[in-house]
Every structure is written in C-alpha cells, then in structure tokens.
Amino acid sequence: MVHMKKIVEDTILAYIETHLDMEYGQDDIAEAFGYSTDHFRHLFRMYYDMPLGEYIRRRRLLKAAERIGNGELIGNAASLYGFETAAGFAKAFRKEFGFPAGELKRQDDIRLDVLPEPEYDRNQIRISFLETQELKMAGRSVIPEGGADIDLLEEVAYWLDHEFPEIDNSEFSGMQCFKDDHIAMWYHPLDSQEITYLMGPVVKKFSCVPEGLITVTIPGRRYAVFETKQDSDKKELAETVRYLCKYIFREWVPANDVVADRMGFTFERYHGNKVSVYLPLI
C-alpha cells in the first residue's frame, strides 16, 4: 500500500495529495508554495528525482486504480482524477501497470507505492575532511516559530526564508570580520531552554564585537564538509542547504563508517552564494 504516513508528513506531497481530484495544475501548486512554476518544478525534481508532472499523473492513476478496485466504474474514476477520455486513461493505465484497467480486480500484486524517495546526485556533491582552526562568530538569533517542535532539518537556512534581524553597517564597520564569511546554525544557549537560529560573520576577535550580539567560539576539530560543485542563485540557496543536509543525515551518515558528534556544532558556512555544511566527527 501507499506510504500515506510519509505523504502526510511531507508538506508538499500532502498538499498535492489533497488536490488530486480537483482541477489543480502545476501552476496552482507552485503558487501555493510561493514559487514560480519553473522554479518549483526545478526544486521538486532536484529533491524527489522525478518531474512534478509525472508524480501528479502517477498519483492520480493510483487513486483511480484504488477506486476501480473498490468497484467504481472505470469511466467515473478516470474522470474524477482528470483524465478527459476513457481511452486516454486506459492507455496511461496499461503503460503504468502493464495490464488493462478492466483486469484490475484480478491483480493482487499491483504496485500501489510510487512515492518517490529523495535521491541525491553524488556527482554534484563534494565531500572533504579537514581539521579546522578555532572559529569565532558573532551574530543575532531568533527563536523559531514552533519552538522546540520545529523540524530542524526542514528549517536549515532559516535566515533565508524568514524575517531575520540583520547586523547594520554601523555595527559591521567596527568589527574585524573575515570577508564574505558567515556562519549560521541551530544554537542552544547554555542559559536558556529555547533553541535559536544564529547567523553572523566570522570575526577575528570578540573585543570589537558590539553589545547585543551573541558570540560563539567553535572549537577547532575534525569535520566532514559537504558542498555542491556549483554556486547557487540566491533564490535557490535555502533549497541547496536543505538538499545537502538531507543527503548528509538520511543517506551519507547511515551508509558510512563514521560517527557524527551530536554534541558538536553542525553549521552552515556561506561565502557569497557558495554554501558548505560542516558535520563534526568523533
């Protein structure tokens, strides 16, 4: 059966699922998530390794197949899920499942699970291992909407998608910052029960940091560093970070003989439109 739990847990797939029996097109779905159609198609394919149109078509086929299997007339099920003609539905059904829709009730092994799992193009991800020097950063933080219940993996690059307090030019002018070198991360202050998202420049020393900014020292240690081989446009930067983090924690860590230090700092590092994710290793 279809992994409905996974569909429900994925905001995009859940939205698509609830609109399969409506006259909703790709433009409508993209608009609902605040993207242009072309950009949303690009992001969907990058994450799910499947074109958006193909995913919608397959889900509609499967929903129609379920109804037919439960006794619905083929023409009615086809019409409900957007197939204009019975012939068009029959052709698409046979191509997908390899037998006519009329034989559906005699097929016990129909594959109803076509939920695309995220796939990652390793050729586009560069992984390196390095020993870092101690890093000092200073920045501002926000407590995220949702507090401790927030999905940290879905909300990396938080500063790009939410209103975030910037460091103004007067504050920057007195700080000794490294050029175009910023760090962002989920941060749990020792004196607080709240998890916060912290973002700011890498600095040479704390003595020049204005009051009101949070300072953090990241100890020198061994890291696995992940980056894409191409720079990202600013509008795609957040999705690039999520892509990297999901690859790291869902595929790379389970498949490799390494132990990540959960007590260390996992952080995003930005040099202009180039981003790297640093994973502390034991």
Molecular structure report:
The chain has 282 residues and is α+β, with helices and mostly antiparallel strands. The chain has two domains: 11-109, Arc Repressor Mutant, subunit A; 122-280, Multidrug-efflux Transporter 1 Regulator Bmrr, Chain A (Alpha-Beta Barrel). The chain is 35% helix and 21% strand. It has ten helices and eight strands. It has helices at residues 4-9, 11-18, 26-32, 37-48, 52-69, 74-80, 86-97, 158-161, 169-174, 237-255, and strands at 125-131, 135-142, 177-187, 196-203, 214-218, 222-228, 267-271, 274-280. An eight-stranded antiparallel sheet has the order 1-6-8-7-3-4-2-5, covered by helices on one side. Helix 3 packs across helix 4 (37-48). The chain starts with a helix and ends with a strand. Residues 1-5 have low confidence and may be disordered.
What is the gist of this entry?
The protein is of the alpha+beta class. 35% of the residues lie in helices and 21% in strands.
Which strand order do you get reading across the main beta sheet? 1-6-8-7-3-4-2-5
Q: Level of helix content?
A: 25-40%
Structural class: alpha+beta
| Tally of strands | 8
Separate helix tally: 10
How many domain regions? 2
What is the CATH-assigned architecture of the largest domain? Alpha-Beta Barrel
Under the CATH scheme, which class of the largest domain?
Alpha Beta
CATH topology of the largest domain: Multidrug-efflux Transporter 1 Regulator Bmrr, Chain A
| Morphology | elongated
Low-confidence spans: pLDDT under 50, at least 5 residues? 1-5
CATH H-level superfamily of the largest domain: Regulatory factor, effector binding domain
Q: End-to-end span in angstroms?
A: 40 Å
Order of helices and strands: HHHHHHHEEHHEEEEHEE
Mean pLDDT level:
79
Largest sheet, in brief, is: 8 strands, antiparallel
Q: What integer value in Å does the Rg equal? A: 24 Å
Strand content: 15-25%
